[in-house]
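Lab notebook, bench 4. The sequencing result for the construct came back, and we need a structural model before the next group meeting so we can plan mutations. Quick request posted to the team channel:

Model the 3D structure of this chain.
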Amino acid sequence: MKNVFVIVFALTAFSVFAQTSKPEAYAKTISAADLKKRLYIVAGAEMQGRETATEGQRKAAAYIESEFKSLGLQPGNKDSYQMFYNIYEDSLADAKLEVNGQSFQIDKDFNASINDVDAIMRFSEIVFVGANAMDSLKNANLAGKAVLIIGGIQQAFGRGAQVGGFYGMLAAKGVASIISTGSNYPRTIPAARKGIQTISLFRKTISPQIFTVSENVAKAIIRNDYDVVKSNTSLIKTYATELVLSVKKAALAVQSSNVVGLLPGTDLKDEYLVISAHYDHLGIRNGNIYYGADDDGSGTVSIIQIAQAFAKAKAEGKGPRRSIVFLANSGEEEGLWGSEYYAGHPVFPLEKTTADLNIDMIGRSDSSRKIGDSLNYVYVVGDDKLSSDLRTISETVNNKYLKLELDYKFNDPNDRQRIYYRSDHYNFARNGVPIIFYYDGMLGADYHRPTDTPDKINYNLLAKRAQLVFYTAWEMANRNDMLKRDRPLQNAF
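Done. Here's the predicted structure in token form:
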């Protein structure tokens, strides 16, 4: 009876608001024709695939900024529409390896990964770990030690989760270095010296330094025992040796940016609703442009169209009570960088942000979806987490205005694709901000391929889905109270 009362009350509150506002005329400005026109620009050849920290990404950012300006949005980052952040890329400048006074050569005898820091490490012993000794490691004291694996991590321990579990166990134990043998020495082609990119120079922990070595190096370390330990896959044994590992890196800093536009609210202008999408994609690879029309050109043009609808309402004296932040993120394809940076350096307080409505791929249909109407659905993700208000609002506006099939498939905590964790909303959710993620499920042959092009978008369906986000935003921006945060944060992950 109590649950029935809560739902009835929520629906009644919504209907009272609906009677005093008419969002339909503004929703209709989100048209298939306008979305198509903009998407052929965003996902056009001139944008060069919009890879983060490239000229194509900068062109896309400039286009989005010009659109926000033309709509009358205010700069969302103080006096700027762009929120710049640094990207740090490490490359290997030099590496050395010495065993008992014998020096070995890079590419001929060994290679080093690029770790978080420059390092010179000197060890007086090394721990050999056999391929079947993983269970025995649980009680081993390996802090600050060097570990040797014959055959490499993947060869010795298989692939996938087991490899991750083994590496994670060693890292958690504070291993200083992992040395594994490889079969491709001497290398005929030098190994790549480019390292991973990150948006932070600082780490909570330092990862183990990883070296790959030839069998000659492993024999120099273990000496006469080499053939014995190679065949004894259950062995854990410590060997005395004088081992010197040295890594020097060169750091390069480049910049990328999010584009942020603000539509100020009225009486609740110090509270905020974020509507987000990422505008970056994969750039040019092997001469092919990765256009990223659905991923996430579809979301990018949708937030521009939604901004246009709200700007028109404001110009006619029906603007939102809460301020709306239109957030176009870069760096999503690299690891949710743009939204991570925004969440770590919020322009508008996260505790005053009622929700994030995130759009990532809403222009096509999921060929694997075998139930319902493939031309009248959208996957809704995350509306069962953090706030009990989310689904009530989402379903109420959908039933009133659009009647899309709302598919909750990816709310399954056992979702093997882990969709909930794979787009920009996640950086809001992990900071306690209620979210809804809108998604079409298109992970087929065109996903992350040059063939994700604007001609394959269903623009009528794209418009309908974008209108759903608009109607949901309309309610969230105008209701009396911010969304409740009444579901435990830990249940969201």
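Residues 107 and 188 are 8 Å apart (CA to CA).
Will bring this to the meeting.
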